[in-house]
Amino acid sequence: MEFKSALPIYLQVMTEIKRDIVTGRIQLGEKLPSVRDLAVYYTINPNTVSRVYKELESEGVCFTKRGMGTFVTEDTKKVEQMKEEMASEIVAHFLEGMQQIGISKEEAIERLRTTEK
Length: 117
Fold this sequence. Notes:
With 117 residues, the protein is mainly alpha-helical. 60% of the residues lie in helices and 7% in strands. It has a two-stranded antiparallel sheet with strand order 1-2.
């Protein structure tokens, strides 16, 4: 992963993990990599990974079983909530970008309707 300097690394890693959960790449109830393994994977400090897991746990995205590791929540409602939040953020950024170049919300929506993949 290539990190952007505008956002703290731990937030970028959190976002990627959440995206992987929402898209099903990481399954509900699945054990997440150890702090050391994830630090090696992202080539970041283990303390940063600890913060990622602590923040995800405080948001209810995962939970820790002492001596066993960190696991993804099994709460499907929480995952749907994350998906909705992520979608709203993406749409808001899109509309903001369109507005910055002089395209109204209505025009942006019309462009979405008429644009092919």
